[in-house]
């Protein structure tokens, strides 16, 4: 054998250090984080918020298998989440009934596996016609399927439970790891376990030949054909896996909330998962994780503070689409990159100015919206932040709104002039 | 006579009432380097799209070895051993150079749609990818995002992806279009090296390249092959000269290339 043939080109691959830093370390950090959270003895509210975040992380990551990695825009991803959830609830009821030997011995802890299977099965059936198209037709088909399945959910009462949905009791069947699945502490470990496994599974998928070809198909489906792959087949297989992991998240949700309604199959949750993935950043693996954490937090916390929170969410989405297509992850990694390079060239100062400008203008907008919402409700309620009395007819209100807007746009303008000065 | 590597019989393609390819017959011996020349709009790219399965012909037959490939989808034709490049660079722009070539290697090494293996652990894939990168001279740019390559390097990468799967019949669509003289010389050397032992069909406008590489040349005019022969025969063929009348540049180029031989 010649020397040429012996060459293994090992140096082409990233070094072992890089591999560890990029692929192993994040998961170690995740384990440490998940193991550390109970040490802080989170409140009941916090616990339920964390559970919702875990579910949404897996859901948003599964969605990004389509949008970010395969370039498939779906408006109906909640279908697979919901069907996985329903399957798990019915399985949980079968465990509770204990009539068949198989279900009687099935631990509730392992039920997300059933959700995974149900999601995959739904992907096999629905993906078959959907994945013969890509681009706009694919998006339209997914929209139609979502409407179809959601309306079927209201029609077939024995399966979907009508408007009331299907409920169950998770404290049934054999225990696993000594968890009764009753108290929130037990559920925490259940959520942590499956969030980790779901994230790991979806990451591992990106490293497989199919995962790589999914990115290739996104970039250039024509070329993919001439390296021996059928782009429709690649999309179909990815679609099945995305459905399966959505079903897994649905299974986590079913165990956590013990209820699913046909509402969960509809366009609203499908839209929310799109927002999570996109706001988080679809070009980054960690983007949907950030988006899921942020939006879940907004959904449960911000909705307590303001009834206009959906309006803020909408603004955030539009702002991301227009000014930061890399999403939250793009902003975070961009800042980290600036810091790593030392940030000496004034980029950091410019970014800080931009952030300050946006914050000031946004404050003005918040005051305007909050005053307007209370005024339009007509109950005589008045926006009173920090002990201030801001009514629709108070001059101070309009002074503050105008002042914050002017200051915000002024700072943004300054930041832009610096930028142009640099150019 | 041995079975031709590629055999085209009575190939026709209409787009509506327009006949773009009107009855092409062509046989390629295994290992032959065949150039297709002709004025703009003669149907050269359409012919490639028909052979590679991107378009369905209106009539006719294309055989790869003994097997009929008309009606088969492009990826199946590719797996049977026919590969092609594109006139405009058609690479995976968001991937690194190495990942681009790896995409070309995966299927031929039997990894298909597998979702149970880590690509990083496929040593055979790694080695083959490295070999191809080295043979086309892109090894030092392996980690670069493909979109950031220079134009000539992107064309080289295009050829690397095309040959990565180890196809026996290679179709190159204007591989040197838009290149400078020195870049063209390097590209020609690369093509000769990379396609050694393979059957090659090349569409090319640069007559210097054509007369350098080709064993035989076919002249395609208005969807018909008006002449096929060795470079000497083509150069002397009055019908070819006539076809190029009115296209002064090409005729001069033809003559110049002839004198240079």
Structure description:
Chain A is an all-alpha fold and 423 residues long. Chain A has two domains: 23-266, no CATH class; 341-422. Chain A has helices at 3-6, 16-36, 44-67, 78-97, 101-104, 112-130, 135-155, 157-160, 184-206, 209-219, 221-225, 231-257, 267-280, 287-305, 309-323, 327-340, 347-377, 395-422; strands at residues 166-167, 259-260. Chain A has a two-stranded antiparallel sheet. The radius of gyration of chain A is 24 Å and the shape is globular. Chain B is an alpha/beta fold. Chain B folds into two domains: 1-79 and 170-178 and 199-261, Rossmann fold; 82-166, 3-Layer(aba) Sandwich (Rossmann fold). Chain B contains ten helices and ten strands. Chain B has helices at residues 44-51, 74-79, 97-106, 123-136, 151-164, 181-194, 207-213, 231-236, 238-243, 248-260, and strands spanning 6-15, 18-28, 33-37, 59-64, 67-68, 82-84, 169-173, 199-203, 216-221, 224-229. Chain B has a six-stranded mixed β-sheet with strand order 6-7-8-3-9-10, sandwiched between helices. In chain B, α3 crosses α4, α3 runs parallel beside α5 and α4 (123-136) crosses α5. Chain B is globular and about 60 Å long. The two termini of chain B are 30 Å apart. The relative contact order of chain B is 0.17.
List the helices and strands and how they pair.
The complex is a heterodimer of chains A (423) and B (261).
Chain A: H1 3-6, H2 16-36, H3 44-67, H4 78-97, H5 101-104, H6 112-130, H7 135-155, H8 157-160, E1 166-167, H9 184-206, H10 209-219, H11 221-225, H12 231-257, E2 259-260, H13 267-280, H14 287-305, H15 309-323, H16 327-340, H17 347-377, H18 395-422
Antiparallel strand pairs in A: 1-2
Helix pairs in contact in A: 3-9, 3-12, 3-13, 3-14, 4-6, 4-12, 6-12, 9-12, 10-12, 13-14, 14-16, 17-18
Chain B: E1 6-15, E2 18-28, E3 33-37, H1 44-51, E4 59-64, E5 67-68, H2 74-79, E6 82-84, H3 97-106, H4 123-136, H5 151-164, E7 169-173, H6 181-194, E8 199-203, H7 207-213, E9 216-221, E10 224-229, H8 231-236, H9 238-243, H10 248-260
């Amino acid at each position: 054998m010649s020397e040429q043939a012996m060459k293994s080109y090992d140096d082409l691959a990233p070094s072992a250090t890089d591999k560890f830093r990029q692929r192993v370390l994040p998961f170690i950090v995740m384990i440490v984080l998940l193991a550390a959270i109970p040490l802080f003895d989170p409140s009941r509210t916090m616990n339920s918020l964390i559970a919702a975040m875990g579910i949404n992380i897996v859901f948003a990551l599964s969605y990004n298998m389509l949008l970010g990695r395969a370039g498939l825009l779906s408006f109906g991803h909640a279908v697979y989440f919901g069907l996985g959830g329903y399957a798990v609830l019915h399985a949980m009821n079968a465990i509770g009934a204990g009539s068949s030997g198989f279900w009687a011995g099935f631990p509730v802890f392992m039920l997300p596996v059933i959700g995974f299977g149900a999601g995959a099965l739904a992907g096999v059936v629905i993906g078959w016609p959907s994945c013969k198209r890509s681009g706009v037709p694919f998006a339209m088909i997914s929209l139609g399927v979502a409407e179809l399945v959601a309306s079927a959910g209201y029609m077939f009462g024995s399966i979907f439970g009508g408007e009331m949905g299907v409920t169950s009791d998770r404290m049934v069947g054999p225990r696993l790891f000594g968890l009764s699945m009753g108290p929130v502490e037990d559920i925490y470990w259940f959520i942590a376990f499956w969030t980790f496994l779901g994230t790991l599974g979806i990451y591992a998928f990106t490293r497989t030949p199919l995962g790589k070809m999914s990115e290739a198909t996104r970039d250039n489906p024509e070329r993919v054909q001439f390296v021996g792959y059928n782009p429709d087949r690649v999309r179909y297989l990815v679609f099945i896996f995305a459905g399966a992991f959505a079903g897994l998240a649905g299974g986590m949700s079913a165990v956590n909330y013990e209820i699913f309604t046909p509402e969960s199959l509809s366009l609203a949750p499908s839209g929310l998962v799109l927002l999570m993935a996109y706001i988080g950043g679809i070009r980054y693996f960690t983007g949907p994780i950030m988006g899921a954490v942020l939006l879940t937090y907004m959904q449960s916390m911000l909705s307590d503070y303001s009834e206009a929170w959906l309006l803020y969410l909408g603004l955030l989405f539009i702002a991301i689409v227009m000014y930061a297509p890399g999403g939250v992850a793009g902003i975070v990694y961009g800042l980290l990159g600036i810091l790593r390079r030392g940030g000496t060239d004034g980029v950091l100062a410019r970014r800080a100015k931009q952030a300050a400008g946006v914050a000031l203008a946004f404050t003005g907008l918040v005051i305007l919206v909050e005053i307007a919402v209370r005024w339009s409700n007509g109950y005589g309620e008045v926006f009173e932040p920090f002990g201030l009395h801001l009514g629709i007819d108070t001059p101070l209100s309009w002074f503050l709104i105008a002042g914050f807007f002017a200051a915000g746009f002024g700072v943004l303008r300054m930041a832009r002039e610096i930028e142009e000065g640099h150019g | 006579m041995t079975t031709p590597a590629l055999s085209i019989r009575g190939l026709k393609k209409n787009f509506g009432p327009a006949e773009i390819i009107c009855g092409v017959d062509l046989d390629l011996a295994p290992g032959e380097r065949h150039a297709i020349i002709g004025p703009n709009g003669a149907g050269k790219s359409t012919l490639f799209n028909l052979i590679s399965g991107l378009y369905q012909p209106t009539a006719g037959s294309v055989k790869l070895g003994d097997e009929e490939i008309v009606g088969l989808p492009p990826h199946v034709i590719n797996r049977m051993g026919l590969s092609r490049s594109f006139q405009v660079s058609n690479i995976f722009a968001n991937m690194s150079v190495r990942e681009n070539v790896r995409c070309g290697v995966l299927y031929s090494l039997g990894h298909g749609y597998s979702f149970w293996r880590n690509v990083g652990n496929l040593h055979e894939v790694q080695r083959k990818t490295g070999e191809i990168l080295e043979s086309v001279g892109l090894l030092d740019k392996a980690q670069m995002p493909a979109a950031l390559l220079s134009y000539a390097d992107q064309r080289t990468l295009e050829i690397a992806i095309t040959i990565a799967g180890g196809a026996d019949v290679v179709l190159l669509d204007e591989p040197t279009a838009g290149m400078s003289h020195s870049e063209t010389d390097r590209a020609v050397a690369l093509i000769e090296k990379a396609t050694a032992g393979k059957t090659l069909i090349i569409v090319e406008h640069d007559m210097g390249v054509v007369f350098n590489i080709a064993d035989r040349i076919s002249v395609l005019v208005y969807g018909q092959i008006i002449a096929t022969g060795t470079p000497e025969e083509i150069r002397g063929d009055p019908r070819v000269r006539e076809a190029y009348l009115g296209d002064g540049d090409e005729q001069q180029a033809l003559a110049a290339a002839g004198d240079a031989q």
